[in-house]
Amino acid sequence: MKERLKEIKQEALEQIEAAVDEKKLQDVKVYFLGKKGQITEVLKGMGKLSKEERPVIGQLANEVRDEITEALESKKSKLEQAALEKQLKAESVDVTLPGRPVQKGGPHLLRKVIRDIEDLFTTMGYEVAEGPEVETDFYNFESLNLPKNHPARDMQDSFFISEDLLMRTQTSPVQARTLRQHEGRGPVKIICPGKVYRRDTDDATHSHQFTQIEGLYVDEKIRMSDLKGTLNTFAKHMFGEERNIRLRPSFFPFTEPSAEMDISCKICQGEGCSVCKGSGWIEILGSGMVHPNVLEMAGFDSNKYSGFAFGMGPERIAMLKYGIEDIRHFYTNDVRFLKQFHGV
């Protein structure tokens, strides 16, 4: 039995040394130290030994088991270290290789233009106001002096959700809501940037979804000259100090009198060219004095308060300022287009 234990020890140590991975090492452990392993088989014959031989064989069996266990742990540690070194070698980074260039992003051109306009008007004392894009018929039309069946509603082909709900066709409802919140007390001085929606065929100059920025200033003794001065400041800020403006009579249901604002063409300096169609002027936005009906519906005394409003499309502003010919470029997320305006 002693000889058999010595043979088991020798066989175990040889197989442990020859093991090339942890699975093979586990197989060796089970074969020699498991419940049905070689040492267990030897110990089953202990009953046939004399009382004097049993403790000797038992001690020898324990020594053999301990040596095999120690050899297994040592081999396992070596295999783990070798596996780690192999992994580290495979995952090593060659620091001498050139780095990969990082693509830098930036604000979208349309967002930059909107932010620029917001910054200008906030320095002039305006607050930025927002409202829901799903609007009621009352705020989108009726509160703006557009009662049901008013012919001017046909100018804004709308996305109706129900008889009373629609996707807002302008940001003017934000003005109406803000006026009501003031409960007939001025001043009200806001700009309202946001998305608007109209049923339109998408082409180079039209989109079913676009952005607007509208402004509103209501207080005592507000005059048309205040509107002209504000718009002149805006035009020179966005297009250069050399730009001139002119106001042409127009019609909007929610303003009276109403006016379209043109700026002098920067291409021909007002002399006339293909860009301005020979007129020397380019239309930029609509404006006017707030209609007394709009003030009265919001709870303001139109004999005491007056105001002006204006509305512009940031896409048009950006197209004119940067020479962009197709409005769809703003929404296609073409990186080649967007990169042109990093840093402007």
From TrEMBL:
A Gene Ontology molecular function term for this protein is: tRNA binding
> What residues does the Aminoacyl-transfer RNA synthetases class-II family profile domain cover?
109-340
The free-text note explaining how the cofactor binds reads: Binds 2 magnesium ions per tetramer.
- List, alphabetically, the PROSITE patterns matched: AA_TRNA_LIGASE_II
Enzyme kind, highest EC tier: ligase
Where does it primarily localize? cytoplasm
- The name this protein carries in UniProt is Phenylalanine--tRNA ligase alpha subunit
Q: Which organism is it from?
A: Aquisalibacillus elongatus
Q: Which gene encodes it?
A: pheS
